[in-house]
Design goal:
With 240 residues, the protein is of the alpha/beta class. The protein has an 8-stranded parallel barrel with strand order 1-2-3-4-5-6-7-8, surrounded by 4 helices. α5 packs parallel to α6 and α6 runs parallel beside α8. It starts with a helix and ends with a helix.
Length: 240
């Protein structure tokens, strides 16, 4: 993949007009844009149509987590929106993920549409070991828990997982290359940390096995965000 195909730019805002302005500013450098809860709650499905009108792909990042019937039926609607990828929480369990994966195959074949990639969220990048253990009651180490959830996602028929940079090598060494890893928590060395704890620079994340990297505040908070994305593209450009 070209570098611009591997970057997902997060539209972490509520204003749909501003979101489309960002898409237009960055579309020369980025092919996939992430629509999360804030923007989708504000704008609804029409924001996806507007991004598609700019000939760009959408990662619908709503992290569905509910009973299997509810999530699988929702996935049917998502598939008809034509998104490139979307996600569910792996902690929703095997049946939820499996039914969802099966449903999007069925609806895609029936409607003769391209099947969206389905990814499983493992452990949020904002969580550290202390929170996982003391607050959520999960006694396993983060790496152990992420590996277990990734295996569950693979068994359920998902295309890959969302995982922090710190688990990249472990996942990539345990799963075949076709199992995708989408990685948030990407921070170029020239940016400051925020509420994401398990972070890594772009080039290092890709070298450790990420297929796609998500960038948001690390780029958008810079004085010149377009130049910032150019710097990232230059950093990850393969060397001859």
């Amino acid at each position: 993949m070209e570098p611009k195909e591997r970057i997902i730019l997060a539209l972490d805002i509520a204003d749909p007009k501003e979101a489309i302005d960002i898409v237009k500013r960055f579309k020369e450098h980025v092919n996939i844009f992430k629509v999360g809860s804030e923007l989708f709650t504000s704008a609804g499905p029409r924001i996806i149509d507007e991004i598609h009108a700019e000939n760009k792909k959408v990662f619908l990042d709503l992290k569905y987590h509910d009973i299997p019937t509810t999530v699988s039926r929702t996935a049917r609607v998502v598939a008809n929106l034509g998104v490139f990828m979307f996600n569910v929480h792996t902690l929703g369990g095997l049946d939820m993920m499996k039914q969802t994966a099966q449903e999007i195959v069925k609806v895609s074949l029936k409607q003769n549409i391209e099947r969206p990639l389905l990814l499983g969220v493992t452990i949020l990048t904002s969580l550290e070991q202390a929170a996982l253990t003391n607050e959520l009651g999960i006694v396993h180490r983060i790496n152990t828990q992420v590996k277990h959830l990734a295996k569950l996602a693979l068994k359920a028929g998902l295309d890959g997982v969302i995982a922090s940079p710190q688990e990249l090598e472990m996942i990539r060494s345990s799963f075949e290359k076709g199992f995708l890893i989408v990685t948030p928590g990407i921070r170029p060395i020239w940016t400051k940390q925020d509420d994401q704890k398990r972070t890594m620079p772009p080039k290092k994340a890709l070298a450790r096995g990420a297929d796609y990297i998500i960038l948001g505040r690390a780029v958008m908070s810079q004085p010149d965000p377009v130049n910032a994305i150019k710097l990232v593209l230059k950093e990850i450009e393969p060397r001859a």
